[in-house]
Every structure is written in structure tokens, then in C-alpha cells.
From TrEMBL:
Keywords attached to this entry: Antibiotic resistance, Cell membrane, Membrane, Transmembrane, Transmembrane helix, Transport
Annotated organism of origin: Streptomyces cinnabarinus
Principal subcellular localisation of the protein: membrane
Pfam family, one: MFS_1
Membrane topology (UniProt): Multi-pass membrane protein
Protein name (Swiss-Prot/TrEMBL): MFS transporter
Record-annotated Major facilitator superfamily (MFS) profile domain positions: 21-469
InterPro entries xrefs: MFS (IPR011701), MFS_dom (IPR020846), MFS_trans_sf (IPR036259), Sugar_transporter_CS (IPR005829)
Compartment list: Cell membrane
Transmembrane segments: 21-44, 56-75, 87-104, 116-135, 147-169, 175-195, 207-227, 239-257, 278-300, 306-329, 341-359, 365-384, 405-426, 446-465
């Protein structure tokens, strides 16, 4: 059951209150993506100003990823149990304060701490914001349009962050840390006025404290292990023992969730084929793109000698294509369904990555790089909104935060894992004599891995197209209080 706010006017137009609600949520998602992309270009200046080593600089990025990826499951369920509006606004306020702290500190450890706190707060705003949309906008064309705009803001924030970081770092790296603070405060004030009040979940079976502890610990340790593996070695005793500990924690988490009367993650939701494909698709989609962006940035700056701003502008066509398509994707989803769009998007992504393998040491941008950027931009415009729609369709309102947390966890964990894998592949092939051509040749296996991850995403999606029946009305996943045979019913429509 969705909020009365989701009702448009008699002529089908959205009310100003409805637009305002969506814009507040889009602002938070925009900030999350902006913050991730802005910090990378500023790292050399931060290291020089604060006297930080390369290994310490890594934690300015990894600290954010650790807080974000490790606490998303808890953030999603907290939104369901404690109230989506309350969780979103409190976390947004913490995000603003952490941004202010990060721009003012003169210590590496304090800067890393501020980044971890920002990641932690984003782990609560992201699932809370997505679940506010899915419970405010009625399932169908209304929600599809809202989610298309929402996910476009994430892609736009990521693209703009690359450009803004190049400009702001020229003046001071502190501006890249401070910029999100005023935007977050404006969104917070607007949210207090516009966001619908969401009641806490009633009649729930208590708080799953053991599940929360095990789920958070397993995700934190998984992200930490993957981030550190390229540095300490994938086959090192530390990495292997950490992965073993993750497996033990996840096994214990599953056992607790199966027996808990009020689980942090109701495992029956994952019996839906559409849900599993959405989660695995998110892993493949973001994992491949993060690896591609990492390698492409190294290629452009280290081998071609492009400036940070020049590199950011090279990525801009992809982001611009996503932004321009925001108002159209929802209607395309209504017509073709999520599975077909995700499959088409992955096919475009594979083509874009394959074309990029033609790069050399003297590329013609319009002929060599631009076609890949346009194909990847089109893929992002189709895949990301469709994954969000598919993951949240047919799920009861009281579990929207949980599913949103799952999806965002898949995105972040996928990015962390495959970035580490790509880094390891490139490092293993590093030449003894680093001539430009030898370095470029060492990058190619990494680009092949990126393309293979996208192919895996395409194959996973195609399994949902085989023998599909005509669309039928969604069957809402029933509340967890009913019998096991009933609570695991799943949607039969995208």
C-alpha cells in the first residue's frame, strides 16, 4: 500500500509536493554518487598537503566503501523498522556534518574517519530513500518514471563529480570535501517539509540483533578483505583466513535468519528468480563499470598524459546520455519490461567494452573512445533504472527497505570485488621494463576481465527471458507472519 502522496492530479500530472519529495531523495542519491567520484582526482593533492603515504591515501577511498558496503543491510532494515523518513533525515544530517569535518581536518586519520562516517550515513540514506520512493509512488508507470529519474541522478552525480573534482582541486582539495555539506543541508531542510511521514513497522517480531551483528560484521569483513587483497596478496594467509571468516559469519547469518521470527533479511524473498537476477545483475553491472573506469582513468592520465579535467570530459558523453534519457526510460520499461531492457543494456555494455580494446598510444577520441562511451552510457540508462524497478516490484511495503538494502549491497560489493580483481590482474601482468606499450599491454587483460563480467551479467539476464509467459498482475510477496508456503510467493511479472 503506497502513500496518498502518490496520487497525481486529475489530468495525470504530478503535484508540486510529489515533485518536491522526489527531488529531495534525488539530491541525496546525487550526493552519494558525487562524493564517490570527486575524491579520486583530489588524492595527490591531499597526500602532498597532509604528508600521507600511498597506502594511507587508499583508505580515504576505502574507508567510504567500507562504511557504505558494510552497513547497507542494517540500513535497509532500520528504515523499515524505525521509519523511513526518520532514518533518512538523521543520516542525511550526519552526512552533512561529516562532509564539513572532512574539509576542515588537518590529520590523515581524522579525514579517513570522516570518510567512514560519510559511508556509514550513505548506507542508511540510500536504502531509506529508495524505499520512500517505492512506498510513495504506486507500482507501475508512476513508480517506473520516478525510479528512472532517481537512478539518473546517481549517474549524473557520478559524472559531474569527475568534472567538478578537476575544477575544484585546482583551487583546493578541501573544496571537494566541503561541497556536499551545503547541498545536504538544503536537502535536509526541504526534506523536513516535504517527505511523507512513515510509520514504524507495527506488529514486527522484535529486533533481530544477532542477525544485525552477523550481517554487518560479515559485510564489513568481506569489503575490508577484498579492498586489502591486492596489497597483501590474494594467496596470503591473511586474505585466505579473512575469506574463511567471512564464510563462517555468512553461514551463521543464514542460520540465524532462517530461525529468527523477525529476520534482518527474509530469505524467502531470494526465492524469486527476478529478485536473484536483479541482485546478480547489480553485482555484474557496477563491478564491470568500476573496473572499466579505473583502468580507463589510468590509461588516459598515465599513458596519454591527459589532465584530470580532460579525462573527466572524456567520460562526460556517457553521463550526459544518461541524464538526457531520464524522462524516457520509465515509459520504455512500461512497454518492454525490465528483463528485456536489462538484457539490451548488458549487450550494449559488452559491445562498448569490446570496442575499447582497440585503444592504442595515439587514439583518435571520436573514432576510438567516444563510441564506447556512448554505448556504455546507453547501457547505464537502460540497466540501472530497470534493476531498481525489478528488485522492488511485487515486494510488500514493509519489506521495501530490506530489498533496497540488498540491492545497494550488491552494487557496492560488486564494485569492491571486481575492482580488486581487475587491479590484481593488471598488477600481475606489470612489465619489468615499463615502456608505454608494455604498460598498455598489461592493461588489456584487465579490460578483458571487465568485458567478461558484463557478459556474465548478460547471460544471467537471458535466463529470465527463456520461456517467459505473457505478463500477469504482480503477486505481492506476502508478510512474513503467514505460513511458509504463503510467505515465499514471488512476483510473476517484471
Amino acid at each position: 500500500m503506497t502513500s496518498p502522496l502518490s496520487a497525481p492530479t486529475s489530468d495525470g500530472r504530478w503535484t508540486p509536493r510529489l515533485w518536491g519529495t522526489l527531488l529531495v531523495l534525488c539530491a541525496a542519491m546525487f550526493l552519494d554518487a558525487l562524493d564517490v567520484s570527486m575524491v579520486g582526482v583530489a588524492l595527490p593533492s591531499i597526500g602532498s598537503d597532509l604528508g600521507l603515504s600511498t597506502s594511507t591515501l587508499q583508505w580515504i577511498v576505502s574507508g567510504y566503501i567500507l562504511g557504505y558496503g558494510g552497513l547497507l543491510l542494517l540500513g535497509g532494515r532500520a528504515a523499515d523498522l524505525l521509519g523511513r523518513r526518520q532514518v533518512f533525515l538523521v543520516a542525511l544530517g550526519v552526512f552533512a556534518l561529516a562532509s564539513l569535518l572532512g574539509g576542515l581536518v588537518d590529520s590523515g586519520p581524522l579525514l579517513i574517519a570522516s570518510r567512514f562516517i560519510k559511508g556509514l550515513s550513505a548506507a542508511f540514506t540510500a536504502p531509506a530513500g529508495l524505499s520512500i520512493i517505492t512506498t510513495t509512488f504506486a507500482e507501475g508507470p508512476l513508480r517506473n518514471r520516478a525510479l528512472a529519474i532517481y537512478t539518473t541522478c546517481a549517474a549524473t552525480g557520478f559524472s559531474m563529480g569527475l568534472v567538478l573534482s578537476g575544477l575544484l582541486t585546482e583551487a583546493s582539495w578541501r573544496l571537494t570535501m566541503l561541497l556536499p555539506a551545503p547541498i545536504a543541508l538544503i536537502a535536509l531542510v526541504a526534506g523536513l517539509k516535504l517527505l511523507p511521514r512513515s510509520p514504524r513497522e507495527k506488529n514486527h517480531n522484535g529486533y533481530d540483533i544477532p542477525g544485525a551483528v552477523l550481517g554487518t560484521a560479515s559485510m564489513l569483513l568481506l569489503v575490508f578483505t577484498v579492498v586489502q587483497a591486492p596489497e597483501v596478496g590474494w594467496a596470503s594467509a591473511r586474505t585466505l583466513l579473512s575469506f574463511l571468516a567471512v564464510a563462517v559469519l555468512l553461514s551463521a547469518f543464514v542460520l540465524v535468519e532462517r530461525r529468527s521470527p523477525g529476520p534482518l533479511v527474509r530469505l524467502g524473498v531470494l526465492r524469486s528468480g527476478n529478485q536473484i537476477r536483479a541482485q546478480l545483475g547489480a553485482v555484474a553491472f557496477f563491478g564491470s563499470y568500476v573496473g572499466f573506469q579505473f583502468l580507463t582513468t589510468l590509461y588516459m592520465q598515465s599513458l596519454l598524459g591527459w589532465s584530470a579535467l580532460h579525462t573527466a570530459l572524456a567520460f562526460l558523453p556517457a553521463g550526459a546520455l544518461v541524464a538526457l534519457s531520464s524522462t524516457k526510460v520509465g515509459s520504455i520499461v512500461d512497454r518492454f519490461g525490465t528483463q528485456k531492457l536489462i538484457a539490451a543494456g548488458f549487450a550494449l555494455m559488452v559491445a562498448g567494452y569490446a570496442l575499447f580494446l582497440r585503444i592504442d598510444l595515439d587514439p583518435v577520441y571520436a573514432a576510438t573512445i567516444l563510441p564506447s562511451m556512448l554505448l556504455i552510457g546507453a547501457a547505464c540508462a537502460l540497466v540501472f533504472p530497470s534493476l531498481n524497478i525489478q528488485a522492488t516490484n511485487g515486494v510488500d511495503d514493509h519489506e521495501q527497505g530490506m530489498v533496497s538494502g540488498l540491492l545497494n549491497t550488491s552494487v557496492q560489493v560488486g564494485g569492491a570485488i571486481f575492482l580488486a580483481v581487475v587491479t590484481a590482474v593488471v598488477t600481475a601482468g606489470a612489465p619489468d621494463r615499463p615502456t608505454p606499450q608494455a604498460v598498455l599491454d598489461s592493461y588489456r587483460p584487465g579490460f578483458v576481465v571487465v568485458a567478461c563480467v558484463a557478459v556474465a551479467g548478460l547471460l544471467i539476464t537471458l535466463t529470465g527471458l527463456r520461456g517467459r509467459r505473457p505478463a500477469q498482475p504482480s503477486v505481492v510477496v506476502a508478510k512474513s507472519t503467514v505460513r511458509e508456503t504463503e510467505k515465499d510467493r514471488v512476483p510473476v511479472r517484471d
